[in-house]
Amino acid sequence: MKRRVISIILCGLMVTGLLSGCGDSASSTTTSTTGSSGADTTADVADSATSDSASAESTTAEASTSDVSGSLTIWEHDTAFESSLEAVVEGFKAKYPNVDVEYEFKSDDYQNALTIAIQSGDAPDVFWTNGTATAYFGEFQKADALMDLTDIVDTSELPEDGLSIGTIDGKLYSVPWSCVDTRACYYNKDLFEDNGWDVPKTFDEFEKLLQKEKDAGYIPISLSPNNAWCLLFAFEPILSAYDSDYTEGLADYSVKATDDPARGAMNKMLEWADKGYFGDNYLGVADGNAQVLTFTSGEAVMDIDGSWDTNTFLENNPNLNLGAFQIPDNNGKTGMVGTLANGFSIYKGTKNADAATAFLQYCATTEAQQAWVDGQGAVSGNKNVKSGSAVAEEIANCDTMYTSWQAVLTKHAKDGENASTLFENDITKVFTGDMTTDEFFDEIANVMQ
Amino acid sequence: MNRQKGKSGQIYSLKSKVVRGIVSTILILYTGITLFVLGFTVLNSFKQKSELVTNLFGWPNKFVLDSYKTVFADGSIFRNFGNSLLLTLCGTALCVFLASMVAYGISRYDFKGKGALTAYFLIGMMVPMQVTVLPLFLIFQKLHLLNTLTGMILLYGSGISLSMFIFSRFFKTISKALEESAKLDGANDFTIYTRIILPVCKPVIFTVSLIVSVGYWNDFYLPMILLSKKAKYTLTLVIFNYLGQFVKRMDVSFAAVVITLVPVILLYCFFSNQMVEGITGGAVKG
Amino acid sequence: MKKKRKKKNYVYFILPGFLMYTVFIIIPIIYVIYLSVFDWSGLGAKVFVGLDNFVTLFTDNKIGPEFWHALLNNLKYMLCIWLIVTPLQFIMAYLFYIKIPAFKYIKFMVFMPYVISSTIVSFFATMIFNPNIGILNDVLKKLGLSQGSWFGDSHWAFAIFIIIVIWQSSGSGMMIFYSNLLDIPKEIMEASSIDGCNEMQRFKYILLPLSLPSCVSIIIMSTIWALSVFDLPYILVGSTGGVHSVLDFVNLVFYRYTFGSVLNGQTNYGFGAAISTLMLVVIVIVTSVQNKILSKFEYEN
After folding, report:
1. Cβ contact (<8 Å) for B137 and A19?
2. Whether this model's pTM surpasses 0.80
3. A6 and B228: CB-CB below 8 Å?
4. Same domain, yes or no: B93 and B230
5. Minimal CA–CA distance to C228: which of C212, C193, C252?
């Protein structure tokens, strides 16, 4: 429900940006394309931005923090990050008390809302992106919507990998977070203990565990087949355990996203669905919320989900004895699927470059990075930052890191095609039986390089 | 107007008392669903957070006000409530005012294009708001009405299709004699309208007001798009946002639902008496 | 002099409402019709494509069937309202009319869900129908009966949807019928019983015909409603229209294509506008045909 509901809010904001853009282009007689309307707005502001950033640098250097004032609007893409953002904003406000910070969460159609806001010239000062892992990051940079942060933010405390995600052509455009955005198989420790189950060491053991859990009368894995992301976050770890060599090959695209192992993994999931490993009536689990609730209420023993949801589980049921592991392949090898998290960029046309820069500078400090990681109970990818929780340690307890299958769709789609949207729209059909696995993968193969 | 008191059941009722009893029982069981749903929502709003996940449908172990405290914590909810109230009251008043006048103008006078005009006014019912949201936004922007409660009130007041429909069907039934006699006394049209016709319509006004105000109070879609500053949010929009974070804030969701239902149900209790007894004057004359 | 004034006065009554209505309701609709001949992702320029959008809607292999399937669902829904919901409403109104025991309480409770907004209704629906945490399956399990996935089950989803519709909105139609019944002059009823009519005859020959006017109103309104439904299905199953698209309605299709990037991975307001324009035309035609037929019917009775 959450995602759907918030998507309505998004379409609202999308309309916001959309029509202000429409209005602008109507009043000016230029034939506006996305790039030029952005440029028109930014042309004027660009100069003041650079001079502002120069003074911003000296501001931070002099630590005259009360000079920075005005208002700052921040957009984040998921309320799972609310506690993190709150903590960081608190810390920021302690240093810069005169800045009025307003932040908003949008999800699902975040990309649309943001794109349109930028087109219309009415974008938030600071907004989240997933760096080069998202296709639109490059487009924003080309449309001159991102402020170049290379010289104005001190990034010495941040991990190299994270920085490279936010870098295009040697210039830095976003400040990463030290979390590893990954997936894990969360499990209910109490249920494991009560039934004498152990964390599996091979993929076969994992499958046998599923049957044991089902025999004991529980739903082995909580899953909502009606939401593409719920399916993805389960599919990717299962794929990495089903065929780890293939998954490793995704990193440099030496294997294609639609090769047989991927199809096999999905068929494996369908097999499990038929055996009732997701629950006999799992088609009625409407969305991610219902999936989480099934797990936190103890109906389901495990939930393969994104690592940023750790705190969501705990907030929903503080008494849940939460654990996590990575599903091993048949050689016992485990790995995390995911990337270092990326973070905030500054809109080049911002009206408050001082505050925006000060905010990002604060984000780049270890203090803020730790606050962010703690807020999610996440796994840390930064040697200076501790993992946010005991569960995070369990998630990170693995052999290697894999690339996300979906990230491959974004990176290697044919020019002008959007494989990721296709996946998003059609993957649910595979699980409801409206489409076969092969039809789905063939469809995606058509738009991939 | 004919005020009919309900007659005793004997003349036209199901003969057998047993059958009546059975039917009643079935219906009472049916209403049990509503009671159950509302009841456990209220109960859940008093439960502790940790209890909600494990004991969703049971009696609370302990009654606490935590959820409510959270919702009322920053106090902004009162402003949201006020916004909703303002929008609903003014929007309803404006809508009823405009709709009744238009209905009166169309149904009591004869002129060319009467039918076409009626159809024109009905088109509003045929297009749902998701469709017109884009241009509406643009219009608001041009008129500087974005983020203003005034703009919302004007918008709500303009949605007169359904109200006008109900009013015109009602006006058709009022005998022309009333007007004729008033005219003979030298009253002008507007006086006739306010002093004579309107009082007669009281029941219909109540009906239309109830239908329309419930719609405005429960609307979250238009406020979501046209009111983007938190200070201007309506209560329903705030509740809607809470429900969107249902999983993280399950406790607050229940309290939020209760808070939003209480005013409407009160409104309903107040109006339902007026409405039903009153309509007897109304829609059809035998 | 007086005659002329009388003729013009209606303008004063109609004008204010007319102006407001035109600005806020009609102009947006005209804009949408205008948009339907463009291809516009919401960013950048609008590209004029003439009737292409409509052609795609009718002929495309993927979109066409999807749209027609949704339209069929709308019609199915409409038939359910005409043939199931409306008669139910009338029967309920009749039961109140003849004052079955506790009718005041029942009347109060049956209408109440009408004031509950769709969001909250779907919230309740989740509490009841969610297969894992909802109470229905819980109760069934305790009774030893088999449980279902309800909204996930294409055989049940539509039926449950109609049940929820009945629960939430049958109150209004019932009230209209009820007040209509109350209006029937008692002389007719007394005369009929003196003439020796039994209950069945009274029902068939007096009450039914005299209820026609409200029946007409309700049918006209519910047709328009059925063809433009969006709120409840969207909140219950999302914009995809549920498992196997059983709850896919035309407006959900509109929403998907306009805001959901389903068409070629891009949002396309022009295409969405084409869907809306088509539906507007359909509704106008259906309503006017209905109006003609029903008014004749009403008149004859």
Report:
1. yes
2. no
3. no
4. yes
5. C252
